[in-house]
Write a structure and sequence with these properties.
- With 421 residues, the chain is an alpha/beta fold.
- Helix content is 39%, strand content 15%.
- It is built from 15 helices and 14 strands.
- The chain has a seven-stranded mixed β-sheet with strand order 4-10-9-8-7-5-6, sandwiched between helices. Strands 1-2-3-13 form a four-stranded mixed β-sheet.
- Helix 7 runs parallel beside helix 8.
- It is globular and about 55 Å long.
- The protein starts with a helix and ends with a helix.
- The structure holds 4'-deoxy-4'-aminopyridoxal-5'-phosphate (PMP).
- The site of 4'-deoxy-4'-aminopyridoxal-5'-phosphate (PMP) has 16 residues, from helix 4.
Length: 421
């Protein structure tokens, strides 16, 4: 028995499912998850000595590759000065300035420790600011594991085919109204019927695979929010510092009231943030009445990792990553389409969909063949390519792939598809 398999068996006795986040269990694909021992650049090695080209990058954060020396150096230096103070630091002020400089929606920002917290606090702030209780959420978008947003969510909730989650009081779920992605009519119906505090969405969803928004959809959402006095809350936990330095908002010219950030901003350590227009952010405690707090918020190690990562993300960095992504697309897309499937990419995010047309929304993603996806995933893993273990997830590329790695991904992906039965 492999060491990974025996660790899974042991883990299952003390951790539900043997994993600390559900999709890691590989429930939607064939086979058991490799247990990872170490990672460097674009590679990960499991405890059995197998090497994989990592196409997930810890679900997004590792855009500069694993164990980048500048990031490790920053963490090490910071650790020597202490690992947590529960008091303000110079570094977090500099970091907040970096974030506000980088992202077009940010006048002010507040740091926290996970994307779940970031969207949870941003929604509370939207409710406190507008003095309204209802929100609109888009089907198939995932915003973390808190009560208000676990309704028709993507990512693991979709992977395990859950409509929501037991444990969420009906009184809370009834305040969340859902609308299909790329559809303005349903949004407007909700806005007419309920006092909506905010619309939360991933402008470029990655949690139902990668989906491209229609331009008129994003423009329309902004117009409707302004018209009905609701806030536009763009969840950039995945897209922030990925689609551009200023995230989806910069790349697609979105005028958001609030944004949530996570993943890349923490450089692989637990850090996230939310922020937006000054007038709204000034309602946050201790200046305003909307309460929000966190013992490890602005943790010095996480801030050091985040700052070091952001320094690596120059225009040149994005240009190079985009070139790698394009090369992969050119190598994979024609083959995928020839076999009758589809391929969607924006920047360094992409998904192979086992459906003839690229989906436009969650219900179209649900039409994909999950059986084929499961087989494909296993075949790719056997080729040493670590794709996300669900049709409802996107690939996140990081830097550090050389030409041999790119060829291995292209050829391995083609072979993995050719073997499908
Ligand atoms: N928002 C989005 C768009 C995400 O993709 C995720 C996590 N994948 C979250 C929020 C939640 O972040 P976390 O897992 O750090 O709580």
């Amino acid at each position: 028995m492999s060491l990974s398999k025996s660790l899974l068996t042991r883990g299952q006795k003390v951790i539900p499912g043997g994993v600390n986040s559900p999709v890691r269990a590989f429930g939607a694909v064939v086979g058991d998850p490799p247990f990872i021992e170490r990672a460097s650049g674009c590679y990960m090695w499991d405890v059995d000595g197998n090497r994989y080209i990592d196409l997930i990058g810890s679900w997004g954060p590792m855009i500069v590759g694993h164990s980048h020396n500048q990031v490790l150096e920053a963490i090490t230096q910071s650790a020597k000065n202490g690992t947590s103070f529960g008091a303000p630091t110079q570094q977090e002020v500099l970091f907040a300035e970096d974030l506000c400089d980088a992202h077009p929606a940010l006048d002010m920002v507040r740091l926290c420790s996970s994307g779940t917290e970031a969207t949870m606090h941003a929604i509370r702030l939207a409710r406190g600011y507008t003095k309204r209780d209802h929100i609109i959420k888009v089907d198939g978008c995932y915003h973390g594991a808190h009560d208000s947003v676990l309704v028709k969510a993507g990512s693991g909730v979709a992977t395990f085919a859950l409509p929501g989650s037991p444990g969420i009081p009906q009184d809370i779920a009834r305040l969340t109204h859902t609308a299909p992605f790329n559809n303005l009519d349903v949004v407007e119906q909700h806005l007419q019927k309920f006092d909506i505090a905010c619309i939360i969405l991933e402008a470029v969803p990655g949690n139902m695979g990668c989906i491209i928004p229609k331009e008129e959809y994003l423009i329309g959402l902004r117009r409707l929010c302004t018209q009905y006095g609701a806030l536009l809350l763009v969840d950039e936990v995945m897209t922030g510092f990925r689609l551009a330095r200023g995230g989806a908002c910069e790349r697609l010219h979105i005028d958001a009231d609030l944004v949530a950030l996570g993943k890349i901003v923490g450089g692989g350590l637990p850090l996230a943030a939310f922020g937006g227009k000054r007038e709204i952010m000034m309602n946050l405690s201790p200046v305003g009445a909307v309460y929000q707090a966190g013992t490890l918020s602005g943790n010095p190690l996480a801030v050091a990792a985040g700052r070091a990562t952001l320094q690596i993300l120059t225009p040149n960095f994005y240009e190079n990553l985009e070139k790698v992504a394009l090369q992969l697309e050119e190598g994979i897309r024609p083959f995928v389409e020839e076999k009758g499937y589809s391929f969607t990419r924006l920047g360094s995010m992409f998904t192979i969909f086992f459906r003839s047309q690229s989906p436009q929304n969650f219900s179209e993603v649900q039409e994909c063949s999950f059986d084929l996806f499961g087989q494909f995933h296993r075949n790719a893993l056997d080729e040493g390519i670590y794709y996300p273990p669900s049709q409802y997830e996107a690939v996140f590329l990081g830097s550090g792939m050389n030409q041999d790695d790119i060829q291995q991904v292209i050829e391995g992906t083609r072979r993995a598809i050719s073997k499908l039965s």
